[in-house]
Design brief:
The complex is a heterotrimer of chains A (332), B (375) and C (359). Chain A is an all-alpha fold. Chain A contains eleven helices and two strands; from the N terminus they run ααββααααααααα. Chain A has one domain: MetI-like fold (Orthogonal Bundle), CATH 1.10.3720. Chain A is globular, with a radius of gyration of 23 Å. Chain A starts with 15 loop residues before the first helix and ends in a 9-residue tail after the last helix. Chain C has two domains: 89 residues, no CATH class; 215 residues, MetI-like (MetI-like fold). In chain C, helix 2 packs across helix 3 and helix 6 packs across helix 14. The chains are: A mainly alpha (332), B alpha/beta (375), C mainly alpha (359). At the B-C interface, helix 1, strand 1, helix 2, strand 2 and helix 8 of B face helix 6, helix 14 and helix 15 of C. Chain B: This is Phosphate-binding protein.
């Protein structure tokens, strides 16, 4: 709380300091037991995590030391051969690109939907919509994959041709025709998949925004947008970022939907719209069934890298939240 | 306060209702699906199955032999009520790995064991080692979607060039030469390969390397090494892409071509007539195979350059893998009895309707003898 | 609550509020009309330019609607109102843009799944039926999913909840920071890695066979961080005044947490737990490794291989025959319906238990 790298950020209504100050003097047995239980769960969580980390590191080290090529820069994955050569360059690129595309599309739209449900929709519509959105978060990813392959991919090639016509000169959006089974398609599908999660959590946060603030702003003659901009969005910012992180976690680790939609290859193509690339999770799913023990180790090592990426992203998000912490008007 | 307590009682009641409902649910299901549609046809007479052993048998591996396994399990379970066989098509590599970890009674695999895997198996099989038992074969069909071309004939060098992106259009001179009468459209070739590692890719590329070494420079293996082309996951994935995409060509087990009504390429092997991908033609190619294993290991080496009449050389042989000595005592009787059935005449005859090639008699005899000595 | 949120709706709808009496306003029917015109123009441009993708038509129409509203409103009502209109129309468009694919997805699942859905399908397992043939059912998978997800929730929800309470209500110092850090790390665990971890500890080292419980443990690992993160967020939103008031009355801290903090945020916590359950019910990879999959019924989650719905969907998809595809969609439909019912029940409970506020 005292440095930007501090992990537990101050939420808009700063709960911890006040609560903690009082807990320091707690002597009641009930309090002690309860504290014991909740601290115990935290410890249990740490133990599990430490065990997983040890396990992952052990098997990753086995894999990386057995790798005959550079693990970070090789554009290939051949871990089961007699001369194992594999590297994560393409996977890291594909994972980051598809997730970035997904976040860029999904977060603004999700915030829009969340605002729609919490502040714009007719009340009779709002709560059923909330249910439906929560429900969509539960659709198994294989179903998204089936839908993506059968419905989304055929509908996107027209759009890609269009993007190529107007933005093809950038190189990023050039499109050579063929089935639209590219990283960009994966990004769009991932965006659709994480929409419900991000929406659901953001909506919950927006609904919690203090009504007094909204009423005060309205009384001063603010338009509805001004009310939202000045009292709802700042209040919900940390919640929205946290919701986005949940979504990003799912996007980064998504397996089946990517595996059914993407046409993977171990080349990095300059264009996002042409087939090719790959993601960590998709690669694990594709290679796992035919991997021997060492092949599994190699895949686990790539899983570890996915871990680290997620960690960096989460750390970044925490930093953003910490920077914005000066806003604390909601405490009123 | 009173109100809250009432709520708590109600919540408890809901919870209790849910739990008892779930418990009630566990009593009302049924495993008996014998009456449901279509199942009767392939069921052979169970009279010749000798049941031994009881309990649950776990096995996993190759997804290529999944459909065969389904029928065998159905017939076997019909005869032997005490045994339940659970075969999961997790993939050959995972099947061998779990077998070597001692989780399963036997594994199914599309490729014979590697020397280092045999070395590892000596730890598991006390006093023996793991062996390959060829159990079923199948043609790998090359399916295509080219409007106007119905009877496409290709040979190994042309296939190699198509899948290596050296021939990129359907009206290429090399294809025209093999199909004198056909109207080949001016259409880009979209060659699909498997994005996941697979035994099908392994056998297909072994064929390309074996029959057209000059045109296929890549090492054969479970991972696709060819350049260019598009990828899709699983045989179901590539076959559905071929169905959707005009100009597409890909390789998959014959059953996917049959169920998806996808036309398949006839191979010009050098025999008098181009060979079609059929069950019988695959059996003929398997009978041309030479033994490659030592001792009890019955691994086969296929002859990809065969010019025999009606032998379709792009063929896959899948094995069951078990210990020759030192199988786990509690699963041995059931394993032996089940493998005896699958290699028997009845077991092999049940396969033809599913797009699998039964083993040639000579090889099947050897397998039966070896299964009888498992201990 | 009603009164307050309703007021702005009226205001933007165009009914003259006292404040805006002197201001020119767009008539109430303006937004729908602009929307219609934009949709028409979108289709027109699409047809005229020969664009073959309907997605483009929709995007053009959406852009036209947003722009049109803004320009008109800026001309008639002035800058501030125009910005408000812009926000409103953007929110509406983003909602519609998102609804279309999601609705199409639901429609596809329902339309395809309903074909095979009947009592036989729900009350039978696959038995010994070959997977390529029509027939069979998903009873064994339903039982498996219920038991595995139930067990996973029983493990993960209490640990997750208590950890979140610790972090928000007690957490200070290095230990809390470490826990927060590792919760973040845990959100990034690929599901197959969680599966492999349990596989090597529970099955390979401890020597247990595959079972529903083994799968539930891996699912619990995946579920915990989601529960912690969302619960944490909800607990932080509970106004501090409530805690202070309760503590000032002499209520012990643990009772304050149980009786004041938790009930206030129960709705949000339930949503969080439901989302976590939703995440794990769709998991395939760990189930495949640990529960093994089966074609027959096994009611005991602690012994022997079981089936689960997502694994069933995945396996049927792999088989690739028409009959198997039908079963896959049918099972997916059941899975969605199952989560929906769970969701409704949980929300009902949350609404009952939530304190009545006069906000």
């Amino acid at each position: 709380m005292n440095s930007p790298s501090s992990i537990s950020e101050t939420p808009p209504p700063p709960a911890s300091p006040a609560g903690a100050a009082i807990s320091g003097k707690a002597v009641r047995p009930g309090d002690r037991i309860f504290l014991g239980f909740s601290r115990g769960s935290g410890i249990a969580l740490l133990v599990i995590m430490a065990a997983i980390a040890a396990f992952l590191t052990y098997r990753s080290v086995l894999a990386i030391t057995g790798d005959k090529a550079d693990f970070f820069t090789t554009f290939d994955w051949n871990a089961t051969g007699t001369e194992p050569k594999f590297g994560i360059a393409v996977l890291a690129f594909g994972t980051v690109v598809s997730s970035v595309v997904a976040m860029v599309i999904a977060v603004p739209v999700a915030v829009g939907i969340a605002l729609f449900i919490s502040h714009y929709a007719p009340r009779k519509l709002a709560s059923p919509l909330g249910y439906v959105i929560d429900l969509l978060a539960a659709v198994p990813s294989i179903v998204y994959g089936l839908w993506g392959a059968l419905f989304l991919v055929p509908h996107l090639s027209g759009l890609y041709g269009w993007l190529d016509d107007y933005l093809g000169w950038t190189g990023i959006f050039s499109y050579g025709g063929g089935a639209a089974r590219s990283l960009f398609t994966v990004g769009i599908l991932l965006a659709i998949m994480i929409l419900p999660i991000v929406t659901s959590v953001s909506r919950e946060v927006f609904l919690q925004a203090p009504k007094m603030h909204e009423e005060a702003a309205l009384a001063l003659g603010a338009t509805r947008w001004e009310v939202i901009r000045m009292s709802v969005l700042p209040f919900g910012r940390s919640g929205v970022i946290s919701a986005s992180m949940l979504g990003l976690g799912r996007a980064l680790g998504e397996t089946m939907a990517v595996a059914t939609v993407l046409s993977p290859s171990f080349l990095i193509s300059k264009s996002l719209l042409d087939p090719g690339g790959g993601t960590f999770a998709q690669n694990i799913a594709s290679k796992f069934s035919e991997a021997d023990q060492f092949g599994q180790d190699a895949l686990i090592a790539s899983g570890l890298v996915l871990f680290v990426i997620t960690l960096l992203v989460n750390g970044g998000a925490r930093l953003i939240i910490a920077r914005r912490k000066e806003y604390s008007g909601a405490a009123a | 306060m009173k109100l809250q307590r009432k709520n708590r009682v109600r919540a408890l009641a809901v919870g209790a209702l849910a739990v008892s409902g779930a418990l009630a649910l566990t009593a009302c299901g049924s495993d008996d699906t014998s009456g449901s549609g279509g199942a009767g046809g392939s069921a052979a007479k169970p009279a010749n199955i000798k049941c031994e052993g009881k309990g649950k048998l776990l096995a996993s591996g190759s997804s290529a032999q999944k459909n065969a396994m389904d029928v065998w399990v159905q017939n076997y379970a019909g005869a032997c009520k005490g045994t339940e066989i659970n075969y999961q098509p997790t993939g050959s590599g995972a099947g061998v790995t779990t077998f070597l970890q001692g989780q399963t009674a036997f594994a199914g695999s599309d490729s014979a064991l590697k020397p280092e895997e045999i070395a590892k198996s000596k730890k598991l099989c006390k006093g023996g080692q793991a062996i390959d038992l060829p159990m079923v074969g199948g043609p790998i069909a090359v399916g295509y979607n080219v409007p106007g071309a119905d009877n496409l004939v290709l040979d190994a060098p042309t296939l190699a060039k198509i899948f290596d992106s050296k021939i990129t259009n359907w009206n290429d001179a090399a294809i025209k030469k093999l199909n004198p009468g056909a109207k080949l459209p001016n259409l880009k070739i979209q060659a699909f390969h498997r994005s996941d590692d697979s035994g099908t890719t392994d056998n297909f590329t072994k064929y390309l390397k074996g029959a057209a070494p000059g045109d296929w420079k890549h090492e054969p293996g479970k991972k696709w090494e060819g350049s260019g082309g598009q990828a899709a996951s699983g045989s179901a994935g590539v076959s559905s892409q071929v169905k959707q995409t005009s100009g597409a060509i890909s390789y998959f087990e014959l059953s996917y071509a049959t169920s998806g009504k996808i036309p398949t390429v006839k191979l010009d092997t050098g025999a008098k007539a181009p060979v079609e991908a059929t069950v019988d033609n695959a059996s003929k190619a398997i009978s041309e195979a030479k033994p490659a294993g030592q001792g009890n290991d019955l691994a086969l080496k296929l002859n990809y350059t065969t010019k025999a009449e009606g032998a379709y050389p792009i063929t896959l042989v899948t094995y069951e893998i078990a210990c020759d000595k030192g199988n786990k005592a509690d699963t041995l009787p059931a394993t032996k009895s089940f493998l005896t059935y699958t290699s028997s005449k009845d077991g092999q005859a049940a396969l033809k309707a599913l797009g699998y090639a039964p083993l040639p008699t000579e090889i099947a005899d050897k397998v039966r003898k070896t299964v009888a000595t498992l201990s | 609550m009603t009164a307050v949120t309703d007021r702005p709706t009226v205001a933007s709808g165009g009914a003259p509020l006292p404040v805006s009496l002197k201001q020119a306003r767009l008539p109430r029917w303006a937004p729908p009309v602009i929307a219609l015109v934009a949709a028409g123009a979108g289709c027109g441009i699409g047809l005229g330019a020969g664009l073959d993708s309907t997605i483009q038509w929709g995007l053009i129409a959406a852009a036209l609607f947003v722009l049109g509203t803004y320009v008109l409103s800026a001309a008639v009502e002035g800058g501030r109102q125009a910005k408000d209109r812009l926000a409103t129309s953007m929110v509406w468009t983003s909602f519609l843009l998102a609804v279309i694919p999601l609705a199409s997805l639901l429609w596809e699942t329902v339309a395809r799944g309903i074909k095979v859905l009947n009592v036989y399908f729900l009350s039978h397992s696959m038995g010994t039926l070959p997977d390529a043939l029509p027939g069979g059912g998903i009873y064994h998978a339903i039982i498996g999913t219920l038991e595995q997800v139930g067990l996973a929730t029983l493990i993960a929800a209490p640990i997750g909840l208590l950890t979140a309470i610790y972090l928000v209500e007690y957490g200070r110092g290095r230990f809390a920071k470490t826990v927060t850090f590792f919760v973040d790390v845990m959100t990034g665990i690929p599901s197959i890695v969680a599966g492999l971890f349990i596989l090597s500890v529970w099955i390979l080292i401890l020597g247990f066979g595959p079972s529903g419980f083994a799968g539930a443990m891996a699912l619990a690992i995946l579920m915990m961080p989601v529960v912690v993160r969302s619960t944490e967020e909800m607990l932080k939103l509970v106004p501090n005044e409530l805690r202070e008031a309760s503590l000032a009355l002499g209520v012990p801290k643990w009772r304050t947490i149980l009786k004041v903090v938790l009930p206030t945020s129960l709705g949000g916590i339930t949503t969080g737990v439901m989302l976590a359950i939703a995440r794990i019910t769709g998991e395939t990879a760990p189930v495949l490794l640990l529960v093994w999959g089966a074609k027959t019924i096994n009611n005991n989650p602690f012994d022997g291989a079981q089936q689960s719905l997502p694994l069933y969907v995945f396996q049927q998809w792999q088989i690739g025959t028409d009959a198997a595809y039908d079963r896959a969609w049918g099972a997916a439909l059941v899975l969605i319906a199952f989560v929906m019912i769970l969701n409704l029940v949980a929300r009902g409970i949350a609404r009952w238990k939530a304190p009545k506020t006069h906000r």
